Amino acid sequence: MKSSERDQRLPGSEATAPGGGEPMRRRGASDFSMVEPAEFTSYYGRNIVKPAPWEADIPAYLFSGGVAAGSSLLAAGASITGRDGLRRTGRLGAIVALGFSMAALVHDLGRPSRFLNMLRTVKLTSPMSVGTWILSTYGPFAAIAAAAELAGLLPEGATPSRLRGPLKLLRWVGRPAGLVAGVTAPPVAAYTAVLLSDTATPSWHEAYRELPFVFCGSAAAASGGLGMIGAPVAEAGPARTFALGGALVELAMEHRMEQSMGLTAEPLHHGKAGRLMKAAKALTVVGAVGTLLAGRSRAAAVASGAALLAGSACTRFGVFEAGMESARDPKYVVVPQRERIAREGPTRYVEKQ
Amino acid sequence: MVFRKNSLYGPVDPAAETGYDPHPPRKGFFTDTSVCIGCKACEVACKEWNEVPDDGFGMLGMSYDNTGNLNANTWRHVAFIEQPRRSGSPEAADGGMARAKAPPVELGMPAMGPDSDGATDTGHDKPDFRWLMSSDVCKHCTHAACLDVCPTGSLFRTEFGTVVVQDDICNGCGYCVAACPYGVIERRRGPEGAKNVGIAQKCTLCYDRLTVGEKPACAKACPTESIQFGDVEELRERANERVAQLHERGVMDARLYGNDPEDGVGGTGAFFLLLDEPEVYGLPPDPVVTTRDLPQMFNRATAAGLALLAGAVVSFLGRRS
Fold first, then answer.
1. Which residues of chain A lie closer than 8 angstroms to B3, CB-CB?
2. What residues of chain B lie within 8 A of the CB of A209, using their CB?
3. What is the pLDDT of residues A7-33, one digit of tens each?
């Protein structure tokens, strides 16, 4: 959103007075979209829906959750195919990312001390409740796998004798735990899209068709990138393929998402969100091309992996910011609803046959 | 994902759907804005009764409304709109009241403008603007997104079909704030030292008063009966009669908002008679509860998750290094 456009919403300006007459309608500038310039009325330019009271914690969580999920998948594959370096990167990357996620989630609560209230019920209608249970299922297995990895790093003979038994047990359960973590990881990456979409925030809700694919692609690109950074080049083949596939899915589905969102795609191109989405695309393309052409060079693998990680983070922050902007501007509530009324009349329940 | 019929969307009795059996009739508000005088007694009564903290006084400089919107510290909000006469429709500026056959209702309030000397009939001395006033409140939706997305169960459906926050359960996740299609519920930010800071807050339809047979504070305080409290079914009939009456008098702008059980939120427990488009009052023109699309969201996310799993498997297949 340009500053001149925001100025128009200040109280007292003729463009924002509510009602039906000419001076009361605001011409919504849209310099990118093919949508007709939108005219609409509002209550003194005030927002209708409220933006989520969430800060940078939440997009950071979306990103790190994706990294954790993808890393656990790579670690599981590496464990089956005997790639020790990739397995180690995956398991340790997953637990660091997961720990960061949990801290961000708790920090963002209005009453962090009541975090455990999430576990007093299971609600299928609440993506946040379902997500909490998904994390509660996945988390312990990822943690055991990571602990087993750390136990494996301890030099033989350096451990006190009474710890040898438990450590042996830990190393023994590491593999099955890692496999379970891998199988339970995809919902961790996918549910965050539903978390955003199941709201009245226009640019999040209207993205619900493609957003899970964007986020899962982004998770694969980021965790593949991390695998390329942490694992020896000779072992990182699957990480490169995973990253490349993820980057392609992310780019393609993001493009398609913008087509299907109508007017609510506009915030993805303006201001902070616009800059983030541009950066996300550029970084993801650069990372993918680097992976494809020079993934077997150590330096290029690290640089490409870092670009993919950064691109994934920019995607999450960009989608987050676009939604916040769409909630702050009544245009994105009123105009799409008005267009729908003009097209098909007011929403009325139709009994399914 | 399996849900009962219409548990996410469509007409349903919310209390029965929740499992109250038997339950008292659904309670709600019919706010008839055509008789609202913008006195804000409802705002004050609500604050007093519910101990909603003062959040400071700011001059918004837009109209006689210095409250701005519904939020954690404002559970009743009187919107005040000063509207110029619309070009090409001389009657529209006062909602067609100039053509009304019945004399204005005497409210015992100080008179103002040309109306005071009986110039109503001529129409020529009418002011070239109109004032719209409307007391907004939580809609207590049949399909309440705030309630459905709440991960702790803090938000719950009462036996009266209303939606209430349990302050001691809410952990302040803020999901309900983003889910409400009307922008009603909000996490309380302050003032410092106030109770329930960090917790989602909104109108309870005076749940405590309802349980002892009292009407909500705002309805009790309303001097013009713009805010009418009662059984939703009966209020819907009353609203239909009122809108027909206004149409008969030539007030063709009068329309109901939220009264239809087949609308995007399954009808609201608190609904309105408006004299202009909903967005003029800061209301969404055609809200749809976000959870209507939840089954599709679930399917899409499942497909994306499976694709991620398949992608990982494929990445490891057929490789030696």
1. 124-125
2. 296, 300
3. 333 333 334 444 433 334 444 444 444
Q: Where are the domains of chain A?
A: 57-334
Spatial contact of A43 and B282, defined as CB atoms under 8 Å apart: yes
SS (H, E, C) A254-319: HHHHHHHCHHHHHHHHCHHHHHHHHHHHHHHHHHHHHHHHHCCCHHHHHHHHHHHHHHHHHHHHHH
CATH number, domain of B171, equals 3.30.70.20
Which residues lie closer than 8 Å to B106 by C-beta, 6 or more apart? none
Facing residue for A208 by CB, picked from B148, B287, B300: B300
ipTM confidence: 0.90
On whether residue B274 sits in a domain, the answer given is yes
Question: 3-class DSSP state for residue B32?
Answer: strand
Cα distance between residue B172 and residue A305, in whole Å: 36
What CATH number is given for A57-334 in this structure?
1.20.1630.10
Of the candidates A74, A199, A341, the beta carbon closest to that of B285 is on A341
Closest alpha carbon to B184 in B266, B77, B273: B77
Q: Do B174 and A44 touch (CB under 8 A)?
A: no
| Cβ proximity of B265 and B299 under 8 Å | no
Give the residue from chain A lying closest to B150, CA to CA: A126
Dump pLDDT digits (tens) for A269-309.
999 999 999 999 999 999 999 999 987 899 999 999 999 99
In a domain, residue B211? The reply is yes
DSSP string for residues in B60-128: -SSSS--S-S-BTTBSEEEEEEEEEPPTT-TTGGGTTGGG-SSPPPP-SPPP-GGGGGTGGGTSTTS-S
Q: Report yes or no on B8 lying in a domain.
A: no
Name the pTM for this structure: 0.89
Asked whether residue B265 is domain-assigned, the answer is: yes
Domain that holds residue B59: 15-290
pLDDT along chain B (321 residues), means of 10: 76 94 96 97 97 86 91 96 67 44 56 48 67 97 97 97 97 97 96 93 98 97 98 98 97 96 97 97 97 97 98 86 49
Number of structural domains (chain B) is 1
